[in-house]
């Protein structure tokens, strides 16, 4: 019997797990929690080696409950912690996973809170953004992954929030810029546009200049070991200043709701 990837549960047989799901069924299960989930996005995550569903002899994907759990974890890390795929891959390899057996039975449950208190989580993200730009993505890729409007991406370039890298007449964006677009697209839902982001850009520029002035001599050192230590110190300072900025913002916002 033929199986359609766009429809529900795969037929049961002696050679198939009873709870194997087609890609269409997985998409439907997760739609209540992830509005931007699509069959093409799931396939993309598989292309990026984040998922490895079983295949039938005819080439159709079959997802076990562990695959659905892993996919839910990936999507939550993207949405709640704004992690790029390469960092998510590292998190999963390091054992980052959620026990989603209960969540799989009740997909409409509230998303798990980000594990912001997990030691080193923020630092790993900063380390990634400082030392490795990661893959490059075209405008179409960024729009596909983030769900942002192409006009918003162009507006961010116009206002200097992201720059991109023009190669062969096409502008490409690295993983950090792609995640900036993802974050801004969330703000855009509340009417925040590119011109409103100048305050964030100015603040980031001032912080970068401050940290650079603190570690400039060591960062310019020709001694590889000293320069490595300086980069690690820069990452740590960036983590501390990010946390400090968050605390100051919360302090000021309390006056609004009090």
What does this structure look like?
This protein has helices at residues 23-31, 39-47, 65-81, 85-93, 101-105, 121-131, 139-146, 150-158, 175-188, 198-219, 224-257; strands at residues 54-55, 61-62, 136-137, 165-167, 170-174. With 258 residues, the protein is mainly alpha-helical. The protein folds into 2 domains: 23-115, Multidrug-efflux Transporter Regulator, Chain: A, Domain 2, CATH 1.10.1660.10; 128-257, Multidrug-efflux Transporter Regulator, Chain: A, Domain 2, CATH 1.10.1660. The strands form 2 sheets. It has a 3-stranded antiparallel sheet with strand order 3-5-4. A hairpin with a 5-residue loop joins β1 and β2 (61-62). Residues 10-17 and 99-129 have low confidence and may be disordered.
Task: Furnish the topology, listing elements before pairings.
Blueprint lengths: L22 H9 L7 H9 L6 E2 L5 E2 L2 H17 L3 H9 L7 H5 L15 H11 L4 E2 L1 H8 L3 H9 L6 E3 L2 E5 H14 L9 H22 L4 H34 L1
Antiparallel strand pairs: 1-2, 3-5, 4-5
Helix pairs in contact: 6-11, 10-11
Specify the structural class: mainly alpha
State the separation between the terminal residues, measured CA to CA.
Answer: 63 Å
Order of strands across the widest beta sheet?
3-5-4
CATH architecture field of the largest domain: Orthogonal Bundle
Q: Give the biggest beta sheet.
A: 3 strands, antiparallel
Low-confidence stretches: 10-17, 99-129
In helices, the fraction of residues equals 55-70%
Radius of gyration: 21 Å
